[in-house]
Amino acid sequence: MNALYNLSIFIYSILIKLSAPFNTKAKQICEGRKRFFAELPKVIKHDRPIAWVHCASLGEFEQGRPLIEAIKKQYPEYRIFLTFFSPSGYEIRKNYELADYIYYLPADTKKNAQKLIELVDPEIVFFVKYEFWFHYITELKNKNIPLYLVSSIFRENQQFFKNTPWGKWYRDLLFGFRHFFVQDEQSVKLLGNIGLTNVTKAGDTRFDRVAEIARNGKDIQLIEKFKGNSQLVVAGSTWKPDEEMLIEYIHSHPETKFVIAPHETKPANINRLITELKTQVICYTEATGEAVMNKQVMIIDTIGLLSSVYKYADLAYIGGGFGVGIHNTLEAAIFGMPIVFGPNYTKFKEATTMVELGIAYPVNDSSALKTILESLLSDSKKRADITESCRSFTQQNLGATQTIIDKVFNKY
User: How far apart are CA 282 and CA 296, in angstroms?
Assistant: First the structure.
C-alpha cells in the first residue's frame, strides 16, 4: 500500500507540473513548493518553540485561526509555522499577521517530510479537520513530536472504517495522532470502535471564530444606506448556479434588496453578473452614499467584507450548494437570521443541525427558492423565532478552542 500511495503522490506531482503553464492554481502550487526549501532555511529561527498548524485550504484555516490566536495570546513564546495545501488558502492568507512563517506544504514524500521536520523542528503540530498525509504523520510519530487533529469529523463511510486493504492502511495512519479533537459524538464512537480512545468531543472552532467576528464586526455605512428601510438578503460565496436562481427572484421582487458576494471576484465574473442583472446594480468598490440609494443590488467585488455584511441581513443565502458543497453558514448564523442554501449540504454538520432546528432551509430549484424566500420575508414572527434559535445554537457551541488549548498545553 505504501508503494501505491507513493506512486499516487508522484503522479499527482507530475500532473501539477504539467498543468502549471496552463493553470494558475497549479502554477501557484509549483512555485510555492519550490520556494519552500529555497527560502525556509534562510529565515527559520529556533530561538523559541515552534507550533506547526497545517490547513488544507481557506475553510480549514478559519477553523485553525482561533487556535493560532489563542496560542499567540496565551502562549506568546511560540512561533507559528502555518502551511496550506491549496492556493485558495495560501494566496488569501499568505500575509496573515499572527503566523511567523507561511508556506505551501511540499508534496508528501518521505524525503520532503524528513527535510521539513528537520528544518522546522516543531515542538507541537496541529492538522486541521481532514489532513492525513502518510509521510508527515509517520515522520512526526518517529520523532515523537505530538500531532493533534482538530475540528475533525469522522463518518462511517470513510476508508478508515472499511475492512479493505486501503481501509486498514488508512486506519493504521490514525494511530500517528497524539489526540483527536472531534466535532460530534458519532466521531467519538467511530474512533472508539477501532481502538482509539484518545478522543475529545470539543466541537467546531469556527463557532469561536465567528463569535469573535461578530464582537469585532465593523459598521459599514454604505451597506446601511443601501439597505435603507427595505428588507435585505445577503447572498454569500455564490457560484453561477446560485446566482441564476437569485437573479430570477430579484427580477420578480424589486421591493427586496440584495447584496451578492460572489465566490469569484475576478473582473470577468463580476461583469458577467452585472450583465445578467436587469435591474439597478452597483459594485461596492464604486459605491458612494448617494449612488446606493436607488439601487436594488450591490455586488461585493472585494474580499474580507462578507462576514461584517451579514449583520445587516434579514435573510442569508449561502452559495456552493449546487456544487461540491456549501460555504460557511456560521458567519451568517452568528447574527441570528434564516439561512437558505442549495441541496449539497449534508457533509456539513452545522448545516444539517440548523436544518433540523428549523434555522436553515435547503432548496433544489428556483421555484423552491421563491417559495421559501417569500414565506420567510413575509413572516416577521417566524424570523424572530429563528433569531432566538440561532443565538441559542451558536452560544451552545462556543468553547472548542479553549478546550483544545487546555488539554494540549496543560498536558504538554
Answer: 8
Count CA within 13 A, CB hemisphere, residue 4: 5
**25 lies in which domain range?**
2-204+399-411
- Give pLDDT, residue 411: 60
DSSP string, 241-293: HHHHHHHHHHHH-TTSEEEEEES--SHHHHHHHHHH--S-EEEGGG--TTTTT
Q: Which residue has the cell 511560540?
A: 78
What does the DSSP assignment read for 182-246? ESSHHHHHHHHHTT---EEE---THHHHHHHHHHHPPP-HHHHHHHTTS-EEEEEEE-HHHHHHH
State whether residue 101 is helix, strand or coil: strand
143 plus 66 within the same structural domain: yes
Domain count, the chain: 2
The residues with which 283 forms a beta bridge, in sequence order, are 299
Instruction: Outline where DSSP puts E strands in 86-194.
Output: 101-104, 124-128, 147-152, 179-182
Region 200-206 average pLDDT: 94
pLDDT at 219: 86
> Which H or E element spans position 299?
strand 297-299
- Please say whether the beta carbons of 320 and 242 come within 8 A: yes
Give kind and range of the element (H or E) at residue 316: strand 315-318
**What is the model's pLDDT at position 340?**
98
- 257 lies in the same domain as 356: yes
Query: What's the CA dihedral at 367, 371, 374, 379 to 10 degrees?
Result: -170
Q: What confidence tens digit (pLDDT) does each residue in 265-311 have? A: 999 999 999 999 999 999 999 988 888 888 999 999 998 889 899 99
